[in-house]
Design a protein that fits this description.
- This protein is mainly alpha-helical.
- It has 19 helices and no strands.
- Helix 2 packs parallel to helix 7 and helix 7 packs antiparallel against helix 12.
- The protein is globular.
Amino acid sequence: MNQAEKYVKENGIHFVPVWRIIGFSGANMAVNLYMGLTMIMSYYLNGYVGMAVVLASSFSTIMRIWDGVTDPIVGFFVDKLGGKIGKTRLCLVAGGILLFINSFLMFNVTHKLPEGMIRPIFFIVFTMIYYIGYTFLNISNHVGNVCLTNDPSQRAVLSIVGTILVRVMRAVMQIVVAALAAKYGSMKSAELFQEYWLIVAAIATIGIVISYISIRPKDIPYFSQTSTKKNTKVKISDYITVLRKNRPLQMLFLARTSDQFANTCKTSAITLVLYGIVAGNYKLSGGWTMYTTIIGLVMMTLGIGTVGRKFGFKKAMQVGSWGIIVMDAIAILIWIFLDPKTLNLPGYVNGYGEAFNGFTMFTVLLFIVTVVGGGFQMITSSIIPPMIADVNDYEASRSGKYIPGMVGTLFSFLDKMISSFGPLFVGVGFAWIGFANEFPDLTTPYSFELFAIGLIFYYGLELIGGIFNLIAMKFYDLTPEKMKEVEEKINEMRNS
């Protein structure tokens, strides 16, 4: 209680210094960096492990399903045993160690083994352990967001800071991947994966250490229990009860899975098709991502900072979803009716090999649509963590149990079961148009079929996801007024 009092305000609201919110975002950054390794993994599987295109894409699907299966197990373990240790810190340490060691073995050792069955067996075993580590690290965000703060204004800040850090880092890493592909001449280079792994592992480890320091004073039982007198009894059957009775969680799941499925279909191969083959300069994709991300982050900050804080996360999700639908529809028309090879930015050449000599109509229009649409997309994706935290608080007020590990992993499990099929759909799409054995690469010639596949998986599925978001939010009832009631009820439970 003495440790907790300095962070507690009236009516059960607790807060944290802003620097700790910024520092804890390092965990989310680390999760996304390690996820980035799996987004280009299909090229490694195709080039060194000996898997054909559909099988390599299926491998990613199978591993995400395995990742989903481990979620409920790890979540139960964390809620059952992590109370005194610190649930969040337990996840940070376990996840960080497992991810570092196993990613090293996957991308630095596999291709040095003799060709044959030993390579796929070795890679599969350590990839399965890798995803267990990913589950731990991913849960640290769900659990940490609950105990870090329940102040509505700070949860909005938590979302904004985390998204800015993740998106900037994602844009930087896209530049790194594009530069490494140009440096080594192929996405299938072993040296590319070794260098990329080293960068990812170093930055992610720093982020995890800073997150551990930032969350430490709040990662205590007082902020993760509804009673200071007795421990919460956690049972496996709680999973079924939560899924059946927690309506906000059901609606959030519907919104998230449609978005995440579309996002997992935006694989590195799809990006390469649009920018490397259709637009004719893959290296340009790195600079393009950085330019559009920075301005999109401003939109996201305004969207969550004004709409989210004033009218609630539900309203922010609805605004973002409408924006995605409109902007993606316009983007598809731009790619179809204008010349993609005229895409260019200062310091680059266009698809015809010409140096930058002014902005073209295609560049200007696509830039505007990408920036605005990206801002709306960032609103819908970045609003999920604080919404999950709200759902956790709602569950605690409903059942009397703070089980953020179980609620978060139940959400992740259902999410991954659906979204895991994204890479498989991409592989099937490529195989359908004639790329059954190898992914398209920098030397692959343009075709209308590749153009269509690129548009469908990059824009079309995201547009459909926006429609599902609007349907889900119609039945999501955690408004600011409702959340005020929830926090007051939890405070009464603690003090009774």
